[in-house]
Amino acid sequence: MARKKKRKLSIKKISIVIFVIITISIITVNFDSIRNVYLSKISGYNKESISVFIENDIYKDIKNHEYSKTLETIINTEYYNKNYLDEYLDIVFVENENFLQNTSLLLDKGYSSNDINNIYDKLTENSINVLINNDYFKDITNIISINYFKEDKLERYINYYNEEDDLETILTYVNIGLDNGYYTNVIEIEDQNNLLVLVNKYNKLQNDFVPKDLETISSKYGNGSLRKEARIAFEEMCAAAKDDGITIYGGSGYRSYSHQLRLYNNYVAIDGKIEADTYSARAGHSEHQTGLAMDILNGRWSFIDDNDKEYTWLVNNSYKYGFILRYLEGKEEITGYMYEPWHYRFVGVDVAKEIIQLGITYDEYVAKK
Ligand SMILES: [Zn+2]
Questions:
Q1: Ligand 1 mean position, distance from CA 268 (Å)
Q2: Would you say 195 and 181 are in contact if contact means Cβ atoms under 8 Å apart?
Q3: Residue 253 contacts residue 224 (beta carbons within 8 Å)
Q4: CA distance linking residue 255 with residue 321, whole number of Å
Q5: Which whole-number Å values give the CA distances from 131 to 84, 87, 159, in the listed order?
Q6: Ligand 1 mean position to 294 CA, how many Å?
Q7: What residue spans of 45-190 are helical by DSSP H?
Q8: Residue 303 carries which DSSP code?
Q9: What is each CA distance from 8 to 20, 138, 341, in whole angstroms?
Q10: Which phi and psi angles does 342 have, rounded to 5°?
Q11: What is the pLDDT tens value at each position of the chain, 369 positions in all?
Q12: CA–centroid distance, residue 286 to ligand 1 (Å)
């Protein structure tokens, strides 16, 4: 009897043991999937990704970080590199077929996750290729945040980059065209009758361009023609100068393409091309062809000199009538011309005031727009 009881007890024990073993097995087998469902609920990643994170032993690194679609996507591709885990977590995913490949190339170049977010936020695929095909450019995030950054010039900014100049200077100079030699990469101006047209050694008027509203200035204020608005402002300026006891005259206003061509060729014959280029514009590149520039004479009918009282008056007052001194001393490299204390350009009162306040050339002003 006792033996039987004992055996019965053994069977019960064995059953319990078997039950426990089976239960543990079931739990163990399903533990990963149970855990993964739980983890995916708290992290946002799908179950398969969680398994991969656990396999790669990186779950602990990401569990306190917000969900990253970039990480979830890249980890299943050939582009995944565990060294960039922190970067993947911070890079905003972009729906673009080349995103993962480009991101991995940019990371290899040395770009940070912040750079890459800015690059994808502000640049096109073309520019991304420029970055991939050039050396690492450490100021990319700073340069694209400057409001006159011109994306089509990205490669030129990179090539012109140097440690001495600040980024704003680099952008301004490249926007002007100074990274290329004078009269190279010449752009044909489209809106030639615009009162704010920029004509210089990089921007050219058409040979047959004649401003639409040229008017001859009153003979009591000298000689020459200007566009209507500039003519009126010039005469007002002469009258105001007269009220202050200062006499100024127009010396040379509008000049046609053929007139400029004769002048320039004449100077080249005398001084040679290199010298002539420092003070005379090639035809099509003269501001005088716009009908918005005037070479001003003093009361003795000579070109204004910076010792003249007329010069001082003009420097202090011309902007009130919309005129600026165009070729400044110390800015020869930017304007491409020697200092000309007599050459004034009409840009309108508002722009003239702004330029005077900024203390910059018109070339720089346009490049910063
Ligand atoms: Zn001039």
A1: 17
A2: no
A3: yes
A4: 22
A5: 19, 18, 11
A6: 6
A7: 47-55, 59-62, 69-74, 85-90, 99-109, 113-122, 125-133, 140-144, 154-160, 167-176
A8: B
A9: 18, 80, 120
A10: -105, -15
A11: 455 566 666 788 888 888 887 777 766 666 777 777 777 777 888 888 888 888 888 888 888 889 999 999 999 899 999 999 999 999 999 999 999 999 999 999 999 999 999 999 999 999 999 999 999 999 999 999 999 999 999 999 999 999 899 999 999 999 999 999 999 989 999 999 999 999 999 999 999 999 999 999 999 999 999 999 999 999 999 999 999 999 999 999 999 999 999 999 999 999 999 999 999 999 999 999 999 999 999 999 999 999 999 999 999 999 999 999 999 999 999 999 999 999 999 999 999 999 999 999 999 999 999
A12: 8
Tokens representing 131? 């970055």
Residue 343 CA, ligand 1 centroid: distance in Å:
4
In angstroms, rounded to a whole number, what is the distance separating the alpha carbons of residues 172 and 369?
10
Task: Provide CB contacts within 8 A for 132, sequence distance 6+.
Answer: 102, 105, 106, 109
Residue 254 C-alpha to ligand 1 middle, in angstroms? 9
Are the CB atoms for 130 and 119 separated by under 8 Å? Answer: no
Domains and CATH numbers, the chain: 68-176 (no CATH), 190-367 (3.30.1380.10)
Q: What's the chain's length in residues?
A: 369
pTM score, whole prediction: 0.86
Active site residues: 340
Place of tokens 């050039």: 134
Q: Pairing relation of β-strands 187-188 and 203-204?
A: parallel
User: How far, rounded to the nearest angstrom, does the alpha carbon of residue 130 sit from its chain's CA centroid?
Assistant: 14
Residue 354 belongs to what H/E stretch?
A: helix 349-358
Across the beta sheet with 323-325, the strand order is: 249-252, 293-297, 343-346, 323-325
What is the signed CA dihedral for 193, 194, 198, 199, rounded to 10 degrees?
0
Q: How far is CA 298 from CA 92, 216, 227, in A?
A: 64, 19, 22
- Written as six digits, the tokens of 308 are 């003249």
